[in-house]
Design brief:
The complex is a heterodimer of chains A (283) and B (160).
Chain A lengths: L5 H5 L5 H26 L1 H14 L7 H16 L8 H27 L10 H24 L1 H4 L13 H21 L3 H20 L8 H17 L15 H6 L2 H6 L19
Chain B lengths: L3 E2 L9 H5 L5 E3 L6 E3 L10 H5 L5 E2 L12 E7 L4 E7 L6 E7 L20 H5 L6 H5 L23
Antiparallel strand pairs in B: 1-4, 2-3, 5-6, 6-7
Classes of the chains: A mainly alpha (283), B alpha+beta (160).
Amino acid sequence: MFMSNPFSELSASISPTIMQGYIILMVLLVVGGTILDMIHKKSAQYFFENAKKAKKSAKRTVGTGEKASIAIKVLANEVLTSGEFSNTRRRFSHLLTMYGFIIFVATTAIMIFGYPTPATPTPAILPQLWHIGALMLCAGGYWFWIFIRVDVSAEGLSWYRFERADLFILSLLTTATFALLWSFAQSNGISGWSTLFFALFVASSTTLFGSVLWSKFAHMFFKPAAAFQKRVTRADGSRENLPAEYDLTDPAVQAQFPDIPEYMGNKPAYMGHGIKRESANHY
Amino acid sequence: MPTFVYMTRCDGCGQCVDICPSDIMHIDKTLRRAYNIEPNMCWECYSCVKACPHHAIDVRGYADFAPLGHSVRVHRDEEKGTIAWRIKFRNGKKDMELLAPITTKPWGTCIPQLSDVAAPSNEMRDSQLLFNEPKYLRLDDGDIHTLKSNGLKLEAGVYY
């Protein structure tokens, strides 16, 4: 199962051209859905208006070089390592889901376009990565779905209850699950189940890529932009109107806020975690 | 004005749902972002504003300390044990920052161990004083405490 390219075997019954056409259609659906989403929610308009407002209250100008270094920081921290999550479990689950999804989608496209038939043998690494990607997606996704999801962990609702907000994660999970089941049934020669799981796999992936307007699929495009803007507001001093981060041992800060040395001393101790000592589940 | 959530900043972590004393911060069914389900029941206690790790929640402050159109934002830093406020007026001329301690000892280190305290005697039970009252009122170590006896003096404005 882990060594064979399921799409190459499928080419006996479905032409590779149809499979390639399906991939192109899914890409078009994602692009179109994201554009419609931006128009409908006016998110781009809000984003640029907000950036303009922040620029007005900026205390200094951020140069192009500094902006490039901020972009690198966003890439290293927010994009590649999901650094914006303050909940460690959620961050880890997001990393599993994200990298699983990227590996799964990329290997699917490479196998369908590069090695569509048994005539062009697929390198063993590709189907292996495809299965590992789907397994990572399932591990991170089901962990999130059953335990970490805010509806379950903070709202006290049961894990099997779902609503429109779950469209993205559910279609993602069903896509990966049915892909694995289809591959398993196909490699074991269980033809009836194989057809059923393949049909469910296609239905799930069509829902995933076709429902961008209604789901949170587009977050993967606008989240990095929002993280970049957030870092720029910190660099230019506007800080979204938030107070500065003070060094409590600085004599100037102590002179400005005499309550600090009076109640906490000149070198305040590290206070550790207060409400953050426990996870948010006291609903 | 009750709390409102900036959807682009909220990541649906549930900290506000957890802390809201009125249980009116909930997670939106479509976008999985926090929102105030019953604004008229919000007493603007700022608990969620302070607890939000992404500063995604705002409340408009009362008109008695800032005119309409201002911004009141807060950053509660548990590890430093401080809370910082920034109040900015609409015209941008008044831009004020405040910083105050919220604890003087590391969190969780000074929780009273009531189970270790000896049970009250019958005499204490019949007394009009409440548990540990003389000690906490500090009447048992001399005369009543005053600003003067503690070497303090009343300053102008609000002082506590």
